[in-house]
Design brief:
The chain contains two helices and no strands. By secondary structure, it is mostly helical. The model has no long low-confidence stretch (mean pLDDT about 80).
């Protein structure tokens, strides 16, 4: 989640509602893609 905040930020930057809506759609799409990629599977060695 820290990476998410550094890339997108923790607030909307657009001033009018139409651009805020677009910004939100883009951010949600990026978050969905990051979630779909998943995490690496770690296995204990040794």
């Amino acid at each position: 989640m820290g990476r998410w905040k550094s890339v997108i930020g923790d607030r909307l930057h657009a001033k009018n509602i139409e651009n805020q809506t677009t910004e939100t759609h883009i951010a949600a799409g990026a978050l969905n893609r990051m979630s779909a990629l998943g995490r690496a599977n770690y296995e204990r060695v040794g």
